[in-house]
Amino acid sequence: xxxxxxxxxxxxxxxxxxxxxxxxxxxxxxxxxxxxxxxxxxxxxxxxxxxxxxxxxxxxxxxxxxxxxxxxxxxxxxxxxxxxxxxxxxxxxxxxxxxxxxxxxxxxxxxxxxxxxxxxxxxxxxxxxxxxxxxxxxxxxxxxxxxxxxxxxxxxxxxxxxxxxxxxxxxxxxxxxxxxxxxxxxxxxxxxxxxxxxxxxxxxxxxxxxxxxxxxx
Length: 217
Description:
The protein is an alpha+beta fold. 23% of the residues lie in helices and 30% in strands. It contains four helices and 14 strands. A six-stranded mixed sheet has the order 3-6-9-10-11-12, with helices on both faces. Helix 2 runs antiparallel to helix 4. The N terminus is likely disordered.
């Protein structure tokens, strides 16, 4: 998803319309969520990242992606398929991410850390659908999810029209990073709880935004 610049609330320089300056990054994150309802706020590498609401194609891709996971039985008594769940990161004292889609242990609610974010140990897979700020998903979050020891990271790369699958955790992150173009079918590791095969062409087509009808061609 794309990241937006962080804007300060209106007011005279040095003034604080809320009456109290935020003391921590989490306080600032709270304030941004109030100022920008519908936006996604994350703290990655000690920096606040603000993401605008997704477009329809982004949401459609996520809905379509849930189908093969659920068809494989990955939404039952032992495992769940969820969207937009906070993942507490080990990179910093306040770092957290909110992946677009995840496969998690069913008892995830017993592993709450803080700030509605959960222990990365219960995440079997995370998935991101990119937007204009694709570098965040392809670089920053690769490091973050690798450090958090999430076993499988999938990226629907809309800019380059391909699918990335990162697996095989090592001390420095992921040892295997495979890139799949249209026409391929990708079977994910059974460590997520079942065998799931993704049709790369179908996933990328679902994620492809329609032309803006306001622009004359």
